[in-house]
Structures are given as structure tokens and as C-alpha cells.
């Protein structure tokens, strides 16, 4: 990891921040990204700089221009990108028929197009041996009530992972994804609220391990995937055993 350059989209808080700081602890130079909340990005950057080097790029990755801007800034600062973590996402529970066009477009662009744009732009400066990690979700594997848009877009991310692993064979770039159930972040907490449950009720009723997932476990898995030269095209499920219980009704 030492000296490698990692771009982590949506790293102003939550899972993205944890991944950015974890990779910095392993010696990577990290490009932190936020859409608008520059203060959040500066906080992550300050953490990153305790361990390694980093820069912060403000860009909306749900647009082509935003993805291109990150690639340009990364190239200017470091000349290349070895690791891309397509983490930015938007998790909103909503009955399918209640979703209006504005929400649909935002969900598609944030949860799916962002990964396409960033992968296209950043692979232009990714050398052989590069690694791409996508943040998928258990909702992309097992359907959950009221997550039809989010879950189907995460399913698309899982398929994109497989297609890109095949297509990037020539480039010697590996592509993998991680599919967690609820992780303790702002998004995870809002999903538990949406289920009208407390965290304890969720973990006791919906998990086998009886414990919530913390962002650090996701960050460690990113590190594991980046450092495993023969894993590609795979999706690692981290779900506290939730998918074995069968009750995924939220
Ligand atoms: N938490 C969970 O339970 C869970 C479970 C499964 C999968 N995931 C996935 O894990 C990833 C991270 O989730 P999280 O829980 O850390 O979410 P979070 O706490 O809501 O944080 C998401 C981050 O992404 C940023 N972001 C959103 N849209 C962006 C855009 N267009 N451009 C740049 N940054 C953008 C947000 O910045 P702003 O504040 O500026 O919008 C925020 O910093 C997502 O892909 C999510 O779908 C989460």
C-alpha cells in the first residue's frame, strides 16, 4: 500500500471516511472527495494527513464533469491512481410508486452513473496492477421492501463489477465489490429509523451475530481486496448473517 494512490469517492463521512483513513494508515496517498460539504472533507483530510499524504477534491461524482475533475486533480498531484473506491451513494427507502422523476434520476446518477463515470475517468490514469472496489449492498442481492430503486441499482453495480473484471483483463486491473447490510453510519441509522426499530431490535431480530457492522470492518475488507492479487469479479457479503434469516422485510 505504501506510496500507492487511492481515490475514495464520498469520503466526507461514514464508510468513505473510514476507508480513506484506513488506507492512509497503510501508507497510501489518499484523494478525499466530497460533493458539497467541504468541512466534512477537511475533517477526513486532517485524519488522513496524520498517517500519510492526501488532497481533497470537491466534485459531484454523479456527473461526468465531477468524475473528470477528480481524475484531473489526481493526475496533477500524483500522476496516477492505483486504487479507486466507488463509495459515494444515496440510500433512500421509498415505495416504488411514490418515487418521482427527480428522486429516480438522483438515485440512478448517484448510485450507478457515478461508478461508471469515475471508473472511465480514473482508469485513464490507472497503471497495471490497479484495483477498483465498488460499494454495493445486500439490497442488491436480496430484495427488501421499499428499497426497489436503491437495491436494483446496487444489483447493477454487482453485475458491472463482473463485466469490468472481464473487460479489464488486458489492463490487469481487478474489480470487486462489497455488499454490506446495515452499517452504523448516517445512512444506516436512517434505514433503521425507517424500519421503526431501535438498533438493538434490528440486531436481535434481523442478524445472527447480534451486532451491527461498523465502517472499520468495511475498510478492512477494502484493504483485503486491494491486497489479494487473485480475487477479481467478486462481491463480498458482510451482513451479520442477515441474509440467512430470511426476514428482510423493511
Ligand atoms: N450504511 C449502510 O447501511 C450501507 C449499507 C450498504 C451499502 N452502503 C453503501 O456504502 C456507501 C457509503 O454509505 P454510508 O453509509 O457511508 O453513507 P453516508 O453516511 O450517507 O455517506 C455518503 C457519503 O457519500 C457522499 N456523496 C453522496 N453523493 C455524492 C456525490 N454525488 N458526489 C460526491 N459525494 C457524494 C455524501 O456526501 P454529502 O453529504 O455531500 O451528500 C457522504 O459523504 C454507499 O454507496 C452506500 O450505498 C451503506
TrEMBL record:
Domain of life: Archaea
InterPro entries: NAD(P)-bd_dom_sf, SDR, SDR_fam
Listed name of the protein: 3-oxoacyl-[acyl-carrier-protein] reductase related protein
Organism: Thermoplasma acidophilum (strain ATCC 25905 / DSM 1728 / JCM 9062 / NBRC 15155 / AMRC-C165)
Family: Belongs to the short-chain dehydrogenases/reductases (SDR) family.
Amino acid at each position: 500500500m505504501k506510496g500507492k494512490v487511492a481515490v475514495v469517492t464520498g469520503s466526507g463521512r461514514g464508510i468513505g471516511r473510514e476507508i480513506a483513513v484506513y488506507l492512509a494508515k497503510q501508507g497510501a496517498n489518499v484523494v478525499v472527495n466530497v460533493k458539497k460539504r467541504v468541512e466534512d472533507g477537511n475533517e477526513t483530510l486532517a485524519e488522513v494527513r496524520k498517517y500519510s499524504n492526501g488532497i481533497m477534491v470537491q466534485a459531484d461524482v454523479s456527473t461526468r464533469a465531477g468524475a473528470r475533475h477528480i481524475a484531473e486533480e489526481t493526475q496533477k498531484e500524483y500522476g496516477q491512481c492505483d486504487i479507486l473506491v466507488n463509495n459515494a451513494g444515496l440510500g433512500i427507502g421509498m415505495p416504488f410508486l411514490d418515487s418521482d422523476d427527480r428522486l429516480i434520476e438522483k438515485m440512478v446518477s448517484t448510485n450507478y452513473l457515478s461508478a461508471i463515470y469515475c471508473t472511465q475517468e480514473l482508469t485513464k490514469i490507472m497503471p497495471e496492477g490497479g484495483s477498483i472496489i465498488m460499494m454495493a449492498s445486500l439490497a442488491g442481492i436480496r430484495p427488501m421492501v421499499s428499497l426497489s430503486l436503491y437495491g436494483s441499482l446496487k444489483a447493477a453495480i454487482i453485475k458491472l463489477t463482473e463485466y469490468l473484471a472481464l473487460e479489464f483483463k488486458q489492463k490487469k486491473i481487478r474489480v470487486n465489490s462489497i455488499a454490506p447490510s446495515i452499517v452504523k453510519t448516517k445512512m444506516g441509522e436512517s434505514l433503521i429509523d425507517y424500519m421503526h426499530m431501535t438498533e438493538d431490535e434490528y440486531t436481535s431480530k434481523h442478524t445472527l451475530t447480534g451486532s451491527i457492522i461498523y465502517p472499520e470492518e468495511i475498510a478492512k475488507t477494502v484493504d483485503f481486496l486491494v491486497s489479494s492479487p487473485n480475487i477479481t469479479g467478486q462481491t463480498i457479503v458482510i451482513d451479520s448473517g442477515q441474509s440467512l434469516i430470511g426476514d428482510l422485510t423493511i
